[in-house]
Write a structure and sequence with these properties.
The protein is α/β, with parallel strands linked by helices. The chain contains 10 helices and 9 strands. Helix 2 packs across helix 10, helix 4 packs parallel to helix 6 and helix 5 packs parallel to helix 9. Bound molecules: 2'-deoxycytidine-5'-monophosphate (DC). The site of 2'-deoxycytidine-5'-monophosphate has 16 residues, from helix 3, helix 5 and helix 9.
C-alpha cells in the first residue's frame, strides 16, 4: 500500500493545461514513471469509474486514486465552515488552511481533512453536488492539480476523474473515457444508495446526475470532455467484468511487459 500526504499549497502554479507537448517531453515523463503506466479514466458521474478503476488497479498491482474524493473533501470543508462555493476569494482562503490527505489503497482510499477522517461522510449526493460546485473554482483546481500530479508522477496508478487525460496527465500512456446513459447511471446510483439504507427517489437521483453532467461539462476550467486520444467505452450495456477486460487488453498493448 502506498500512502501520500497532500497539502493544499497556495503557491502552486502548475495550471492551466500545458500547451502542445513534443515527443521529448513525453519520453521524459515516461522515464520518470518507474512504477508503471499512468492510466487515466474520465467520464461523467455514475458511469462506474471508481468500481472499474479500483478493479483495474488491483489486477495490475497499481494504486487507485479517486480524484473526485478530493473535490468532495473541499466541498465538505466549505460546508463545515459555511463558505459559499461560488465565493472565489473565500475558497482561496479555505484552501490555504486546508490539508487534504489521501491514503491510496487497492480497496478503500481514505480521505482526511486537517486530520479528520471524512472517507464515509463525503459519499452522499449532497457532497457530490457540493464537490461539483467547488470544482469550478480556479483556486481549488490549481491546488488539487498539484496534489494529483504529485501522486501520479512515478506512475503505477489508475486515476479517475473528469480531467485526468486532458489536464492532469495529458501525457498519460493510457486514457479511457467511460460513459453510460443518464438513465442507467441514475438507476445504478439509486441502487447503490438504497443498499446503503438511504431512502432516495430514482427520478430525483437521475435529475441530479443530469444537473451535475451539465455543471461539470460546461464550466470554464478543465471541463469534463473526452481527450482526443482516449479510448471510449459505453458501459450502459456492458458488465463490469467486460469493461475491465477491455481495459486490460488496451493496457497490455501499451505496456507489453
Ligand atoms: O467523481 P465524483 O462524483 O466523486 O466527483 C465529484 C465532483 O468533483 C464532480 O461532479 C466534479 C468534480 N471533479 C472534477 O471537477 N474533476 C475531477 N478530476 C474529479 C471530480
Amino acid at each position: 500500500m502506498q500512502s501520500a500526504v497532500g497539502s493544499l499549497n497556495p503557491g502552486a502554479s502548475a495550471f492551466p493545461v500545458p500547451p502542445g507537448r513534443d515527443c521529448g517531453e513525453l519520453q521524459r515523463d515516461m522515464n520518470q514513471r518507474k512504477k508503471g503506466l499512468v492510466i487515466a479514466i474520465d467520464g461523467p458521474s455514475g458511469a462506474g469509474k471508481s468500481t472499474i478503476a479500483r478493479m483495474l488497479a488491483r489486477r495490475l498491482g497499481y494504486v487507485y486514486i479517486d480524484t473526485g474524493a478530493m473535490y468532495r473533501a473541499i466541498g465538505w470543508k466549505a460546508k463545515q465552515e459555511g463558505v459559499d462555493p461560488s465565493d472565489e476569494a473565500a475558497l482561496q482562503q479555505l484552501c490555504s488552511r486546508t490539508d487534504v490527505t489521501i491514503k491510496p489503497d487497492t480497496s478503500v482510499q481514505r480521505v482526511l481533512v486537517n486530520g479528520v477522517e471524512v472517507t464515509g461522510e463525503i459519499r452522499t449526493p449532497e457532497m457530490g453536488m457540493l464537490a461539483s460546485a467547488v470544482s469550478r473554482s480556479p483556486a481549488v483546481r490549481a491546488q488539487l492539480l498539484t496534489l494529483q500530479r504529485g501522486l501520479g508522477a512515478s506512475g503505477g496508478v489508475v486515476m479517475d476523474g473528469r480531467d485526468i487525460g486532458t489536464v492532469v496527465f495529458p501525457g498519460a500512456e493510457v486514457k479511457f473515457y467511460l460513459d453510460a446513459s443518464a438513465e442507467e447511471r441514475g438507476r445504478r446510483r439509486w441502487q447503490e444508495l438504497k443498499e446503503k439504507g438511504m431512502d432516495v427517489d430514482q427520478a430525483v437521483i437521475t435529475e441530479e446526475i443530469r444537473a451535475r453532467d451539465l455543471q461539470d461539462s460546461s464550466r470554464d476550467i478543465a471541463p469534463l470532455k473526452r481527450a482526443p486520444d482516449a479510448c471510449y467505452l459505453d458501459s450502459s450495456t456492458m458488465t463490469i467484468e467486460d469493461v475491465v477486460a477491455s481495459m486490460l487488453s488496451v493496457c497490455a498493448e501499451r505496456d507489453p511487459q
